[in-house]
């Protein structure tokens, strides 16, 4: 029957609890009030409702008709059940708002709930209870309270905690104190006094866990209460002060280069102050780091000493600092209950200290590199350097040396080399570089002895330029004479230097003079198209071998002499042929100078213009358009115009001057600035014209004086102004040399450097290099009259 009643009561209580829980103010599980007690020791637990949740105490609630009910939930279970207060020896009991355990067991661990209720009101709260075991040294997982005492502060006491209410004041308990596992007896500065433990002079060695064991009798049984607390010796309040900075300080300067990581530590020491809040923070230009646009991070660490003095370290970090960041103000601040302090960090841009080893290494490396560069530059540009030195610092070799010519040119006549000498070599050396050339076939007078004139010209020249080629050895009779004379002059007197220009490769030769010259002298090689431009290496090598000659005289009078020379040739020509092409109308070309002078001569003297349209102009030129109304235009049609019987040649012959039957029908005399203008030569001829007649007569070749009447009649006119003739040849011409003996079936026009040769009563023209000895030194009047009987000495002037 008793067991049945218990089951019915449990069901009844469960129903009440379920009904009440539906209307209760449940405060939940108060984990902050977790209670830990040792096994086999009494425990006294008050209901938390009256301490923290309700405004009235248990007596008021009980007088108001409220009942306090206890129940619990076992560990690892969810079912709530009422507490059994009918255990043997009344082990669990309640007294007003207190729940007693005399003593506790391990299975008492769980969540306990106290509920205050009546028929209209209900309120409850739960709290955890943990029963723990202890070993012989009182070690357990229980959380221990900490009691701090001041270092060397005088007598300080601690009391055994949480023993009030377990026994009445009339009971005298027995109290024993322990430090760790040792009973407190005969300690130097620690004395036990019942519930208190006195520290006479607290030392750091007094730190540790202290346990008091309280034993008291109750109802014939003896209960033991074990209370353990941690004693911590801390700094004395007499030593407390405001924060103290260890860094930054005035002795340390943070020097960084832009792009490096900037780390500034702020290390502050705080003495122990009870209930004091220690703070450390950074400011950048008066702002907190998070309020700036700088990519900065702050890391903090805290370390405690044995007496709980605190050291806080905050490291301000900027990954890639800029020059602007190094100019900012970085201040660390610290504060506690004693005051607030701050300290600025010295930050500046790092000045790189000179490292002489690096400088020496760099200097040595730079010197070696400079020497290598100079060697390479000299190896590549040595010609330019020599020419620059000669042009600015060299001594003019032409002053007071008694020489008339700069260069005497020796070459194979009637060959391809002749065109190279007369067009390319002569044009660049005279017109571009301003040298005075002596070309025998151009500068010698008719009727002279070849050997004597050759030796005379070589003696009057500063250099002998030999154009080497296979033809030079095979057919260069006069050329070999020139080479031998030049080498002997250089070897014996030393007043002439020989320059070898290899136009084409020459194989082994039996000419000992040429062998000796090639062995001793440097050969300058012509490389075809690569050597075409005056700025090329060939011309620079040739300039170095030439005599040093200042260009000031040439530059001052060159342009004026060019105009005079062109005007002189146009004035002495009957026709001026303008070969029209897009390149002709370039304003900087000599062609435009000739064109403008030709238009002027057409309007003032008897020189007529003939325009040959070789290629059409890309853009119309106003000067050319004006000429179409009054000047003959002949168009070149390419392949159609190559035949001598084409319309082009017929129209051109109609425009050319009509020649008398007494003159040769196979040629017309022509003049071109590209082959006939030599400014020094023009000046020389001009100086000859200014000489008295007696000096002119004496200066001619032996046996070459004309009749007195003829001289007085035509004084002031040169005997042969242009020696360039355009010869029209059909078939195999009798003017062609043996070295160029291939037969042409089609007639063609060729340009040769020609001179008149007296033969009986008429003048014959022969090519350069083929000299016919005149039968008599006297030149016939008819031959001279052929050059001087007209106001214009040339049939046409070619542009």
What's the topology here?
Elements lengths: L1 H22 L1 E5 L5 E4 L4 E4 L2 H5 L4 H6 L3 E8 L5 E3 L9 E4 L2 E4 L8 E8 L4 E11 L13 E5 L5 E4 L14 E6 L2 E2 L6 E4 L2 E4 L8 E11 L2 E14 L9 E4 L5 E4 L5 E9 L8 E6 L11 E9 L5 E9 L11 E7 L2 E11 L6 H38 L11 E6 L5 H17 L4 E2 L1 H4 L6 H10 L1 E8 L1 H5 L2 H16 L4 E6 L9 H9 L2 E3 L11 H9 L6 H20 L1 E8 L9 H15 L3 E6 L8 H6 L4 E4 L11 H9 L11 E6 H4 L2 H12 L2 H7 L8 H6 L10 E6 L18 E6 L1 E5 L2 E5 L14 H8 L5 E5 L1
Parallel strand pairs: 1-9, 2-9, 10-17, 19-25, 26-27, 26-28, 28-29, 29-30, 31-32, 31-39, 32-33, 34-39
Antiparallel strand pairs: 3-7, 4-5, 4-8, 6-7, 8-9, 11-15, 12-13, 12-16, 14-15, 16-17, 18-20, 20-23, 21-24, 22-23, 24-25, 34-35, 35-36, 37-38
Helix pairs in contact: 4-11, 7-9, 12-13
Describe this structure in words.
The chain has 799 residues and is an alpha/beta fold. It has five domains: 118 residues, Sandwich (Immunoglobulin-like); 89 residues, Sandwich (Immunoglobulin-like); 112 residues, Immunoglobulin-like, CATH 2.60.40.10; 156 residues, Rossmann fold; 242 residues, no CATH class. It contains 20 helices and 39 strands. The strands form nine sheets. Strands 33-32-31-39-34-35-36 form a seven-stranded mixed beta sheet, sandwiched between helices. Strand 32, helix 14 and strand 33 form a beta-alpha-beta unit. The longest helix is centred in the middle third of the chain and has 38 residues. The relative contact order is 0.06.
């Amino acid at each position: 029957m008793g067991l049945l009643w218990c089951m019915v009561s449990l069901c009844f209580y469960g129903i009440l609890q379920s009904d009440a829980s539906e209307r209760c103010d449940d405060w939940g599980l108060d984990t902050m009030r977790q209670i830990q007690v040792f096994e086999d020791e009494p425990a006294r637990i008050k209901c938390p409702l009256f301490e923290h949740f309700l405004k009235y105490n248990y007596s008021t609630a009980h007088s108001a008709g409220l009942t306090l009910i206890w129940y619990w939930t076992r560990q690892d279970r969810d079912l709530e059940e009422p507490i059994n207060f009918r255990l043997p020896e009344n082990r669990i009991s309640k007294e007003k708002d207190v729940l007693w355990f005399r003593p506790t067991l391990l299975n008492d661990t769980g969540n306990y709930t106290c509920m205050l209720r009546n028929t209209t009101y209900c309120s409850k709260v739960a709290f955890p209870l943990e029963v723990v075991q202890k070993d012989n040294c009182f070690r357990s997982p229980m959380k221990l309270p900490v009691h701090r005492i001041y270092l060397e502060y005088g007598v300080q006491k601690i009391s055994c905690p949480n023993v009030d209410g377990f026994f009445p004041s009339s009971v005298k308990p027995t109290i024993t104190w322990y430090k760790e596992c040792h009973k407190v007896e005969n300690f130097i500065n620690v004395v036990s006094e019942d519930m208190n433990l006195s520290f006479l002079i607290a030392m750091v060695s007094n730190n540790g866990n202290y346990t008091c064991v309280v034993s008291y009798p109750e109802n014939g049984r003896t209960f033991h209460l074990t209370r353990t607390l941690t004693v911590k010796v801390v700094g004395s309040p007499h030593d407390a002060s405001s924060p103290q900075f260890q860094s930054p300080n005035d002795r340390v300067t943070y020097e960084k280069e832009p792009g490096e990581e900037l780390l500034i530590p702020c290390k502050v020491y705080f003495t122990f102050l009870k209930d004091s809040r220690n703070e450390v923070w950074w400011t950048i230009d008066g702002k907190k780091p998070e309020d700036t646009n700088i990519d900065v991070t702050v890391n903090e660490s805290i370390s405690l000493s044995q007496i709980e003095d605190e050291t806080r370290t905050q490291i301000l970090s900027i990954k890639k600092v800029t020059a602007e960041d190094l100019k900012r103000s970085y201040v660390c601040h610290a504060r506690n209950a004693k005051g607030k302090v701050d300290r600025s960090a010295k930050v500046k841009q790092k000045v790189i200290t000179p490292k002489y080893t690096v400088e020496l290494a760099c200097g040595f490396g730079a010197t070696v590199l400079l020497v290598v560069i100079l060697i390479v530059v000299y190896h590549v540009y040595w010609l330019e350097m020599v020419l620059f030195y000669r042009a600015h610092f060299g001594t003019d070799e032409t002053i007071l040396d008694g020489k008339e010519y700069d260069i005497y040119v020796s070459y194979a006549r009637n060959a391809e080399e002749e065109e190279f000498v007369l067009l390319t070599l002569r044009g660049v050396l005279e017109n571009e570089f301003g040298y005075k050339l002596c070309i025998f076939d151009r500068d010698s007078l008719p009727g002279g002895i070849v050997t004597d004139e050759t030796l005379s010209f070589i003696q009057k020249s500063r250099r002998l330029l030999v154009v080497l080629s296979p033809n030079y050895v095979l057919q260069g009779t006069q050329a070999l004479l020139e080479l031998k004379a030049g080498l002997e002059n250089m070897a014996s007197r030393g007043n002439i230097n020989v320059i070898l220009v290899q136009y084409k490769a020459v194989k082994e030769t039996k000419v000992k003079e040429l062998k000796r010259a090639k062995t001793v002298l440097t050969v300058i090689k012509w490389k075809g198209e690569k050597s075409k431009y005056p700025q090329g290496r060939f011309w620079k090598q040739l300039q170095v071998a030439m005599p040093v000659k200042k260009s000031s005289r040439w530059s001052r009078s060159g342009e004026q002499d060019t105009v005079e020379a062109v005007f002189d040739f146009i004035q002495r020509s009957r026709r001026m042929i303008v070969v029209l092409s897009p390149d002709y109308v370039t304003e900087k070309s000599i062609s435009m100078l000739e064109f403008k002078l030709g238009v002027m001569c057409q309007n003032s003297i008897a020189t007529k213009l003939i325009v040959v349209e070789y290629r059409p102009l890309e853009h119309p030129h106003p000067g050319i358009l004006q000429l179409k109304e009054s000047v003959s235009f002949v168009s070149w049609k390419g392949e159609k115009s190559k035949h001598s019987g084409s319309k082009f040649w017929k129209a051109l012959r109609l425009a050319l001057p009509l020649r008398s039957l007494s003159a040769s029908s196979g040629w017309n005399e022509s003049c071109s600035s590209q082959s006939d203008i030599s400014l020094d030569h023009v000046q020389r001829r001009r100086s000859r014209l200014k000489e008295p007649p007696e000096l002119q007569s004496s200066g001619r070749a032996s046996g070459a004086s004309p009749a007195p009447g003829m001289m007085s009649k035509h004084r002031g006119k040169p005997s042969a102004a242009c020696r360039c003739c355009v010869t029209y040849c059909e078939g195999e011409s009798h003017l062609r040399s043996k070295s160029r003996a291939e037969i042409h079936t089609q007639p063609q026009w060729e340009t040769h450097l020609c001179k008149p040769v007296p033969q009986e009563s008429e003048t014959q023209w022969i090519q350069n290099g083929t000299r016919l000895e005149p039968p008599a030194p006297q030149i016939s009047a008819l031959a001279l009259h052929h050059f001087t009987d007209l106001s214009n000495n040339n049939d046409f002037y070619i542009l």
